[in-house]
Design a protein that fits this description.
This protein has 85 residues and is mainly alpha-helical. The protein has three helices and no strands. It is rod-shaped, with a radius of gyration of 30 Å.
Length: 85
C-alpha cells in the first residue's frame, strides 16, 4: 500500500501559529492523520483491480461457452424434430 506522509510536527506548528493551543493542535493533527489512514485502507490497489478483471473475464468466458452449448443443443433439437427428406 502506498503511504501518504502527514507531517504532524509542521501541522501542529501551523495550528499553534493560527491561535490553537498545544492540546487542540495535537488533537486536530492526530484526527487528520487517522482520517487519512482510514481512507487509505478502503482504496483498491492495482493488484485488486487486476484480480477483479481477471475474475470477470473467466466468468464471461464460462457464460459464453454455456450459451453457445445451449444454442447448439437447441439447433440440434430443432433439426431432429424436422428431419430432411
Amino acid at each position: 500500500m502506498t503511504a501518504i506522509t502527514f507531517d504532524t510536527h509542521t501541522a501542529i506548528k501551523r495550528l499553534k501559529a493560527a491561535g490553537f493551543d498545544e492540546q487542540q493542535a495535537e488533537a486536530l493533527s492526530d484526527t487528520i492523520r487517522e482520517a487519512q489512514e482510514a481512507k487509505l485502507n478502503e482504496l483498491a490497489t492495482k493488484g485488486d483491480l487486476k484480480e477483479a478483471i481477471a475474475e470477470a473475464k473467466v466468468d464471461i468466458i464460462k457464460w459464453m461457452f454455456g450459451v453457445s452449448a445451449g444454442q447448439a443443443l437447441f439447433i440440434l433439437t430443432v433439426l431432429k424434430m424436422f428431419p430432411a427428406h
